[in-house]
UniProtKB/TrEMBL annotation:
PROSITE patterns recorded: YJEF_C_2, YJEF_C_3, YJEF_N
Protein name: ADP-dependent (S)-NAD(P)H-hydrate dehydratase
CDD domains: YXKO-related
Record text on cofactor binding: Binds 1 potassium ion per subunit.
Species assigned in the record: Malikia spinosa
EC number, UniProt record: 4.2.1.136
Essential cofactor(s): K(+); Mg(2+)
Binding site for (6S)-NADPHX: 273, 334, 388, 455
YjeF C-terminal domain segment(s): 232-539
Physiological role: Catalyzes the dehydration of the S-form of NAD(P)HX at the expense of ADP, which is converted to AMP. Together with NAD(P)HX epimerase, which catalyzes the epimerization of the S- and R-forms, the enzyme allows the repair of both epimers of NAD(P)HX, a damaged form of NAD(P)H that is a result of enzymatic or heat-dependent hydration.
GO biological process: metabolite repair; nicotinamide nucleotide metabolic process
Residue span, YjeF N-terminal domain: 22-225
Catalytic class of the enzyme: lyase
Length: 539
């Protein structure tokens, strides 16, 4: 059965399986099904989706490789020959027939028997291209016909349907394995077979795959633990949110934002970043929001005239005093070098700490602070880090290209090294926690690539975390949070504190992206525009 995956609507959370797990699931299915039946199911699904995408196509081109992925395409072509008798079908195939897997050889025989037109050259004009070149077995290609076909598929403005994976895209990481990193020119669809692959949803994968579809081909995917999950909230926010009648502002948690270096420090004022985070925290439902601007000088404001509900406090005293010991603290938004004055105290005393931007840069520069952060979880203190790829690279001691080459692995390493929940921002943001299966977010778009949106996210994370920690919520997190299987090699249980941190991060990232997805087409988006759409934690 075909399932269309739309951003923000993947409930319950869907498992993602990498190349090794997907191959194992495929081999188990092949062992229990009659010969060629799995490929017949795949071909039927490809043909059905092709007809749905281009029901009146005059010319369909199928580019097929030498593996079973190519066999899926060849057998789909044979089916389309009977289902679309008026449509011209051209097949480009390359391979050594004597070395083909049994299913692929069978598919080639069926394609020839159907009288299909074979050509080594892509047609000059076609309505639908079907990419069945590499699939799960994708790897870098040297010069040759298949590389030329891949380039044609990348550059065409016709609709392209990719079988299982866009050829040249790494299944596990979403990084391009071939030098075709430019965004595809035309509409893209990807039909993922048997399992959903992590690479479709992060790094280059979202642009490469376009609209993702899934057909499990009648095979259960729960035979092996997933390598990741698609992030989806357990419930949707909205105006019908029910609160206890006896609730008060203290019931919804306190949030302290420390950042916004004053202009008097080095001539570069960044108070706007901290204001955005604090305003986001208030709008996202925190009961009380305190704001401490770092390096305060004569020009430092003591009141936000547009948001007078925000309570200004001295930053240093707040970091070292009782407030930081009680509230969720967000540190780093626009903090500049001034963040160094408060970071050590926060790492030592804050029970729940969100570190963003300049706080992460300061950590990367000082080994003893990194060690201090790594010890917090063992003391019952919890941390959420929200780096973009360059900040993540600084923390890991590598460059951002290495982070982007395997975003899942980078997030796992950060979570494990610093014993923290990590939100690795970017296309397909990755949320990871120590010893847990990571999640990949499906919401958001390039409108968020503007100054200040990360500050809004940090404030949202803090606000949602404050609300999960309020009375009556501890130990009662939604049961929908996916856990690893007992034999997965991962810790299947989460402490209440770590679970609340992970759940708050997942919800904030999902809703942050969803706000951009709902933004009217053709209108620019400023970070401050996100605030009006924020809603508190439901329930």
């Amino acid at each position: 059965m075909l399932l269309r995956l739309d951003p923000g609507s993947c409930r319950p959370k869907l498992p993602l399986h990498g190349s090794a797990a997907s191959r194992a699931i495929e081999q188990a299915a092949l062992a229990h099904l009659p010969p060629h039946q799995l490929m017949q199911r795949a071909a039927g699904s490809i043909a059905a989706l092709a007809r749905a995408l281009q029901p009146h196509a005059r010319h369909v081109w199928l580019a097929c490789g030498p593996s079973n992925n190519g066999g899926d395409g060849l057998l789909a072509a044979a089916l389309l020959r009977t289902q679309l008798p008026q449509t011209r079908l051209t097949v480009s195939w390359q391979g050594n027939e004597s070395r083909l897997p049994d299913d692929a050889r069978y598919a080639l025989q069926q394609a020839r028997a159907a009288g299909l037109e074979f050509s080594d050259r892509p047609p000059e004009d076609f309505d639908l291209g079907i990419d069945a070149l590499l699939g799960l077995g994708g790897r870098g290609l040297g010069p040759g016909p298949m590389a030329d076909w891949m380039q044609t598929l990348q550059q065409t403005r016709a609709t392209v349907l990719c079988v299982d994976l866009p050829s040249g895209l790494a299944c596990d990481s979403g990084a391009w394995l071939n030098p075709f990193a430019a965004r595809p020119a035309g509409p893209r669809h990807t039909l993922s077979l048997l399992t959903l692959k992590p690479g479709l949803f992060t790094a280059d994968g979202r642009d490469a795959a376009g609209q993702v579809w899934l057909d499990r081909l009648g095979v259960a995917a729960d035979q092996l633990p997933p390598d990741a999950w698609l992030n989806a909230p357990d419930t949707e926010p909205g105006p019908t949110r029910q609160q206890r009648h006896g609730a008060h502002k203290g019931s919804h948690g306190d949030l302290l934002v420390l950042g916004g270096q004053d202009v008097s420090v080095d001539g570069n004022g960044m108070s706007g970043a901290a204001l955005l985070a604090a305003r986001a925290g208030l709008q996202a439902g925190a009961g009380r929001v305190y704001l401490g601007l770092l390096g305060a000088g004569p020009a430092t404001p003591a009141l936000d005239l547009l948001w007078p509900e925000l309570m200004f406090r001295p930053a240093q005293a707040s970091a070292e005093g009782e407030l930081a010991r009680q509230a969720i603290t967000v540190c780093g938004c626009g903090g500049g070098q001034s963040v160094r004055a408060v970071l050590s105290a926060l790492l030592e005393h804050s029970p729940r700490l969100v570190l963003d931007a300049d706080a992460l840069n300061a950590l990367a520069q000082q080994a003893d602070w990194r060690a201090q952060l790594s010890r917090r979880l063992a003391r019952g203190q919890h941390s959420i880090l929200t780096p973009h790829p360059l900040e993540a690279a600084r923390l890991l001691g590598c460059d951002s290209a290495q982070v982007q080459a395997d975003r899942l692995q980078a997030a796992r390493e950060l979570a494990q090294q610093f014993q923290s929940v990590v939100v690795l921002k970017g296309s397909g943001s990755v949320i990871a926690a120590p010893g847990q299966i990571p999640l990949i977010n499906t919401t958001g778009n390039a409108l968020l690539a503007t100054a200040g949106t990360g500050d809004v996210l940090a404030g949202m994370v803090g606000a949602y975390w404050a609300q999960t920690a309020r009375p009556g919520r501890q130990g009662q997190m939604p049961a929908a949070m996916p856990q690893p299987s007992p034999d997965s090699g991962l810790n299947g249980s989460l402490s209440d504190g770590l679970e609340m941190a992970l759940q708050a991060a997942c919800r904030a990232v999902h809703q942050h992206g969803a706000l951009a997805d709902r933004w009217p087409s053709g209108r620019g988006l400023r970070a401050g525009d996100l605030l009006a759409g924020l809603t508190p934690w439901p329930g």
